[in-house]
Amino acid sequence: MDLWNVATPPADRNRLGFWHDELLREVAGREESLSLLPDVRVLYAAWKHLVHSYRVQDVNVNDARLVDVMSVYAVESLLSFNSDDFKHYGLVTALHPASLLVRDLSDEGHLGQSTAT
User: Fold this and answer.
1) CA-CA-CA-CA torsion for 88, 102, 18, 56, nearest 10 degrees?
2) Which strand (E) or helix (H) includes residue 50?
């Protein structure tokens, strides 16, 4: 559900820029590798405690829901374009996708290569 939110256009608003049919194909190709967690009754009680404890309101309610599900099922980390939105909970680690990219330093004259001419 949250993938659909961030994967659909427009890309200029921290979205991935997929179109509907393209995203359906992408999701279908990955469904086999996913572990779907059941939406059990205890999630509501945990969510309610979380929104009360952290005084959550507005669109942050959706982030609280993710944190709630993750904490109940002991999921430690997630990818988010808005990783700062999760820091104040202190219950999960939110990583921005850019933090997972490995820069090729050899193109910048690093790794012992001289840049002098």
Assistant:
1) 0
2) helix 41-53
Model pTM? 0.66
What's at 38, amino acid-wise?
Answer: P
Q: Nearest-CA neighbor of 71 among 93, 87, 95?
A: 93
- Distance CA(85)–CA(40), nearest Å, equals 25
Using CA atoms, how far apart are residues 56 and 62, in angstroms rounded to an integer?
A: 10
CA atoms within 13 A of residue 92's CA, in its CB half-sphere: 25
Q: How far is it, in rounded angstroms, from Cα 28 to Cα 87?
A: 31
Task: Please list, in sequence order, all residues whose beta carbon lies within 8 angstroms of the beta carbon of residue 75, skipping any fewer than 6 positions away.
Answer: 69, 92
pLDDT tens for each residue of 9-23 = 666 765 677 788 888
Dihedral, CA of residue 68, residue 84, residue 75 and residue 57, to nearest 10: 10
> What ranges do the domains of the chain cover?
1-34, 37-117
